[in-house]
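Case study.
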Amino acid sequence: MNWLIAILQTALFVALAPFLAGFMKFCKCRLQNRRAPSLLQPYRDLLKLTRKQPVISEDASWLFCTTPYIVFTAMVLAASVVPFIAVDLPTSAEADVIVLVGFFAFARFFLALAGLDIGTAFGGMGSSREMTISSLAEPAMLMAVFTLTMTASTTNLSGAIEHVLNEGVVLRPSFVFALFALMLVAVAETGRIPVDNPTTHLELTMIHEAMILEYSGRHLALIEWASQLKFMLYGVLISNIFFPWGIAESFGLSALGYGLLVIAGKLILLCVVLAIAETAVAKMRLFRVQEYLGFAYLLGLLGMLSHIILESTR
Amino acid sequence: MILFLAYSAVLLSFASGGVAIAHLFKPEVNKQLVFWLLGASGLTAILAGLGELIYPEIRLDTLSLGLPWIPWHVHFDSLSAFFFLIIGIAVFAVSFYAPHYTHHEQKNAENFAVLSLFTGLFIAGMMLVLLADDAFMFMIAWELMSVASYFLVAFQHENPANRRAAFLYLLMAEVGALLIILAFGVVASFADGFTFDALRASTISTTWMSIAFVLALMGFGMKAGLVPIHVWLPEAHPVAPSHISGLMSGVMLKVALYGLIRFCFDLLPEVHWQWGVVLLIVGTISALSGILYAMMQQNLKRLLAYSSVENIGIIVMVLGLSMIFLANDQQELAALGLLAALFHAFNHALFKNLLFLGAGMIHHQTHELNIDMLGGLIKRMPKTSVIFLIGCMSISSLPLFNGFVSEWLAFQTALQVDVLDNGVLRSLIPVSAAALALTAALAAACFVKVFGLIFLGVPRSRHAEKAKEIQDKGMLAAPAMLAGLCFFFGIFPSSILHLIDNVSKQLLGSTLPAKDVLSFISIAPVSPEQASYTAPLILIGAVCAAGISFWLLHRNSETTMRIAPTWDCGFGGLTHRMQYTSSAFTMPLRRIFATAFLIDEKVEKTMRENTKLNVADVRYTLHIQDHSWVRVYQPIERGVNVVAKQVGRIQTGNIRTYLGYSLATLILLLWVVSL
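After joint prediction, the assembly is written out as follows.
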C-alpha cells in the first residue's frame, strides 16, 4: 500500500512538473507586461516534440541517443526520493539527500558527455561551463544540506522533515542561512537568471542550452521534461525542508489531498518570488558566477557554524 | 592453510620472474608460463585474503631467513588480508592483460626477461610487506618493492626524460624509506626488539610518539603521494608500461597506506586527535590539489597519476576522521571511518587499475596518450569505450557504482561530528566534508573531459581516425572484469563491507554501530533512521523508469531517426579543430582556481605585411606547473647545494689535512671512550 502511494506520488510529481514550468512562465510574463501562454502550453510542446522526427548528427554515437533516457530516469528517481505530498514513504528510505545530489550528478555527467559527442564548439562550450558551475554549486548545496542534516542528525529527507515538524515553529539562524544558500544554488543549478538564461540562444551567454543544442524530437522532449522536473525538485526540496507544515503525515485520503493543496500553495509562492527576482535582476557575466556561488557557499558555511556555535546542545 | 596460500602467492610471483630468466637462457621454456604463474599468484592471493577475512584470526609464523639471530616474523591478520585481496585482484587482472600488451617486448628476450623478472619481484615485495611482523622484514620487503619498481619505471630508459623520472622516483623512495626506518627506530628504542609485538608493548612518551608519527606520515606519505611530497608520482607513473602503472597506482600506493594504518592504528600504543587533524588537513589538501592538477593535464596517464593523488588524499582524510573519533573514545564511529577509508582504497584499486589498463589499450591502438590528439574512439573501439566509461563513472562517484558508496560512507562519517566536544573539530570536519564535495564534483568534471575528449566527438588526429578495436580477448577481459567488479560492489556493497568490518574488529576492537542493518541489499552504517542506501532498489527503479519512458515514446512511433550532417550554422566546413580541447574545456576552472597553479600562458601573434590588425599566425602556449616544485623542492635543492659547497671547503685535496682530520677524530673518539 505504502509502495503504491509512493509510486503514485512519483507519477504525480512527474506529471505536474511541466505545469509548474508553465506557471513560472505565466508569472514572468505578467510581471513583464506580456500576455502569457496557456498554462498547459508546456504539455503541448512536449507532445509536439514526441511526434516530431528526431534528427541525429552523423557524428553522434549511441551515447547521444541514450543520454535523454538516462537524464530523465535520474530525475524520476530523484522525484521518488523527495517527499512531495507525504513523508515517511518507503521510497525515501532507499536513498538519502547525498544520493539525491548523486542523481543530479549522474544526469549532469551524461548531459555533458552528450554535449561533447557531436564534436561542435557549442556542445563543448556548454559542457565545460556546466561542469564548472556545477562543481562550484555542489559543495555549496551540500554545505546547506549538511546544516540541516546535522540539526536533525539524519541525512534521510523524510527523517529531517519529521524532525522539523516535531520541533514546531522555532527560528533557527542556521536554517535562515541554509535556506538562502540553497535558494542561490537552486537558481544556479536549474539554469535561471542571473546564472543562465533558459530562453536565450546566444553563444556568449548560454550554458544549458548549448549542451542540448543538437537534440530534437522525442530526445529533446525528454530533456526538457527532465529540466522541468529538476526545477520542481528544487522547489519542493526548499519548501518542504524549511516549511514542512501541512505535509501529509498519514496516508488517509483527506490528509493527502490537504498535503497536495498545501504544497501547491508553497510552490506558487516560491514561483512568484523567483519570477520577481528574475524580472528585477539582469543576467551576470560567466566569470562572476564563481562569486555568486562562493557567496552561496559562504552562507552555507555560516549556517553550519551558527548551528555548531549557537544551537548545539553540547 | 591460509598462511600457506599466502606463501604460495609470494613464491609463485617469484617463480614468474624466475621463469622469465630461464627463458632468456633456455628459449625452449614457454614464456607464456610467466603470465600463468602471475595469474596463479594473483588467484592464490585472492583466496588467501578472502579466507582470512571470512575466518578472521591472527596467524603467526617464523621463518629462519635473514640474519641468523633475527629470524623473519610473519603474521597474517585481517588488515594484511584485505590488502592481499587488493593485490590479488589487480595481479590476476594484469596476468590476462599483459600477454598481449607486452607482445612487442616479447620479441626481445632480454627486455622481456627484465620486465617479467622485476614485475615478479615487485609483486612479491608488496606481498611480503603485508606479511612482515617485524621492522627488519618490513624494511627488506619495502626496499624490494621500491627497487624492483624503479627498474620497471626505468624500463623504457632510451628516453632521457624517463631516466630522469626513474631517478626522481628512486630518490624519493629512498628518502621515504629512511624516514620509515627512523620512525621504526624511534619506537624501537623504547621497546625491546624489532618485532611488531615488542613495538606495540613499548613504553614511549607522547612527544616521541608524535615524532614517530610525523616521520611515518612523511615516509609512507612519500610513497603514497601526499601533497607536497607527491611529485615523483606524475613523473614516474606515466613512463612505466601501462599494466605496471596500474599496479603502481592501484596497488603500491595502497601498500604505503597499509604501512601508515599499521603504524598509526596498530603499532603506536595510542592515538591522539591532533594527529587525526594533521591527516585530515593533509588529506584535504592532497585531494583538492590532486584533482585540480589532474584536470589541467593533457597526457592521459599523467592525469590518472594526479587523480591517484586525489584519491589517496580522500582516503587519508577519512583515516584522519577515524583517528579523531578513536582518540575521542568513539570506537564505533572510528570503525565506520576505517571502513570508509578501506573501502575507498579497495574501490580506487579497482577503477584506477581499470583506467590505466584502458589507457594502455588506447595507447596500444593509437600510439597516442595526448588527450588533444584523440577523439571519436567510441565508434572505433566500442568495447573499450564501454569499459572505460564504467571506470570514469566509478571514479566520478556516480550512484550505482562503487566509488559513490565509499564517498557516501565518508560523508556519513563526517556528519557524525556532533558527538565530539571540541568546537574546533566540530567546525573543521564539516568544512573538510564540503571540500570532499568539491573534490567529487571536480573529479566528475575531470572525467567528463577525459571520456568526452578521448572517445566522443570527431577524431583529432590520423592515429585516432585509424584506430581499431582490440582483438585480443585477454586484453579486453582484464579491464572488463574490473569494470564488472566496480558495478557489482556499487550495487551490493555490503558483500565486501561485511568482510572489511572484520578488519576493524581486529584492529580497533569494535565493529560498525549497527551491524545487523548491514543487510544484503541496503547499507545503513549508523542506523536505518539516520541514513540508508539501497542500491539494488534504485537499480530496479531506474530500469523501470527508463523502460517505461522508452516504451511510451516508441509505442506508436512511425518516426524513425534521421541521420543528417552536423549543423554548421550555415557556414560550412566544420573541422575537427573546431572542437573543444583539453585546455579549452578546463579554462573556466583554470581561471577560477588560478592561484592554485603556476600558469605560464603566452599568445604570440605574427602580423601580415607589417600591419597592426591583419593577423597572419597565432601561436598559443600554455604551461602549468605544480606549486610544490617551486615552493618546496627548489629551495631544498638550493639549500643542499649551499651546504655541499660549505662542506666542500674542508676538502682541501691535501694529504696532510686529511691526516690531520684522522688524528683529530682519533683523539675525539679516545676522549669519548674515556668518559
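Observations recorded in class. The mean pLDDT of chain A is 89. Residues 121-152 of chain A form the longest helix (32 residues). We will return to this complex in the next lecture.
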